[in-house]
Predict the 3D structure of the following.
Amino acid sequence: MTTLRSIVSLLTAIFRWLAVASVAAMALLIAASVLMRATATPLGGEHELIELMMVAVVMLGLAYTQKAGAHISIGLLGDRFPPRWQAGLDLLAVVLIAASCLLIGWANLRVAYDYATDSPMSTDFLSIPLYPFKIVVGLGFWLWGLQAMVGLGEGVDADAKGEHQRHQDTGT
């Protein structure tokens, strides 16, 4: 499990920096577009590039957001249960996240294959192929699911270490 954790952690860090690079590229492209409009020679197709980069930013950031615990969650009902039930609900949530991400990732990778082989799809103005972005979507969802599972394992390990530490502190 430690090897899986380190691989998922490395991939999450790589995806995070690719997302940061995409945001930087978007900012530079928007700035260049604004400057070009000021000189009356606008860039063509920058809106398509920005849209595709937004897809990359979101998909590449899913796993890191999971690792940071920054996805939106509402504990109106779950926080009222005893800690054991809350742990069970957390486990159920991770199972549902992992299963959903696995299915969505697989579906997007199948569509990417179709776009690359049988029925090519591309953007309207610049004719940029869409299959690489479908691959990013699929891999982003898969890594999110893996990060959720690894994060649950880290939480269980931390709870076990904390329980062990409490026993040592109390002498029981």
Notes: Confidence is low (pLDDT under 50) at residues 163-168. Residues 131-170 form the longest helix (40 residues). The helical segments are 2-38, 46-67, 83-116, 131-170. The CA atoms of residues 28 and 54 lie 14 Å apart.
